[in-house]
Fold:
Amino acid sequence: MKYFLLPLGCQMNQSDTERVRTVLQGMGFVPTENEEEATLLGIIACSVRQKGIDKVYSRIIKWNEMRGHKNCITFVSGCILPADRERFLKLFDLVFTMNDLPELPNMIRQYGIFIPTKDNGQQSVSPSVSPSTISVNIQKPLVPLFSKKDKINPSANMDRFWVIEPDHISEFEAYIPIQNGCNKFCTYCAVPYTRGREVSRKSEDILAELKDLVQKDYKSITLLGQNVNSYGLDKKGEEINFAELLRRIGEYGDSVDKEFWVYFTSPHPRDMSDEVIEVISQYKCLGKQIHLPIQSGDNDMLQRMNRKHTLDDYRHIIHTIRRLLPEATIFTDIIVGFTGETEEEFENSRKAMEEFKYNMAYIAQYSVRPGAVASTWADDVPKETKKKRYHILTDELMKHSLVYNQGLVGKTVKVLVNGIDRNSAYLTGHTEGKIVIRFKSSNRNLIGKIVKVEVTSATPLSIEGNLIEE
Structure:
């Protein structure tokens, strides 16, 4: 039995996919990249942007057409808005939230696939299943896991999900979920409606997972959450805060003879404390790269977005990073064309990008998401204006990132090698600050290793160099 799995969206969805893989493979399914071969077809969806949902509809239409010549079961999970979930119930065989992933084997049994069990009642984890023990009958009426009237709480019982050991796609880069959900309710954002309210994972489990990855020689580990720096706030008195979590990771990093970098995404400026930045500055394993979404450089716009911080609040954080972590790179997220954005408000965003000189910015043209507060507001900035503003901010980013990258020329940087360049004579990787780099080498054994490279040239979004130490 084979499965095909399509993850869409952010790093959190990619991380969730790794736990889905564990469950499917524990049931005896094996992965395939060929949809025509698969008995089980699944999508880890993203309702945060319309483009992601469009991909879901495109794929399920194709899959349902395939039923004319093959038997298969389809499912969808991930970040799904209530309105999208209701539509998916009519298109997919199974629709479920991630906290119900442990129930997936029982859901699949309802559709006629018999999964062998061991004597103790636990599911077989053997990937080889005798054809005589498998029956596929998908002609029965579809009975979705949820009905339209069900109230879904995507953050309930997340410990049942987190306890599943992920089947990592990479052998040297990994994600660790530390928190799920969001309490911020930014007016443009659908995440509180797709992920639910903030729930923090047990710190002892996070640290145990991280230590296991380090012992397995993982080099890049990213702590994930919708608001990582609000970690522990939902369990005051029971759990440590984010700064203390980083401190304990840093102390562990100092205690072992292994080199690795730990990152986190995404923080919210409202909860970003000076203590977090101070802790990062104290420990070598805490990666010197900060992703700090600004979304807009205009105070009136920030208020309409319900960001609950001002540009001066954000500026204080950036100045603290520059003071305590002068070597750190800074990434951001920013939206153009949000409801009512005037030329003056957009210009203030451009000025903010000019001031903060980001190394990378993920610039989004605003699109309405059903369920978010702003979905009831007029999407009144023309598409052409959004595109124009997008290109203006992109040019601003390129200008400042090029200056930074040119400043690396002649310097030696550490690089995590992560693959082969389009030109197969080169390997690719990224610096501790997550600047993309390539260097000439035919030694594929370097992939997954940290090496030293002397930078010889720079472009706005990448650098190139010569390998000087393997």
About this structure: Residues 178 and 201 are 5 Å apart (CA to CA). The chain has three domains: 2-133, 158-406, 412-469. Residues 116-151 have pLDDT under 50 and may be disordered.
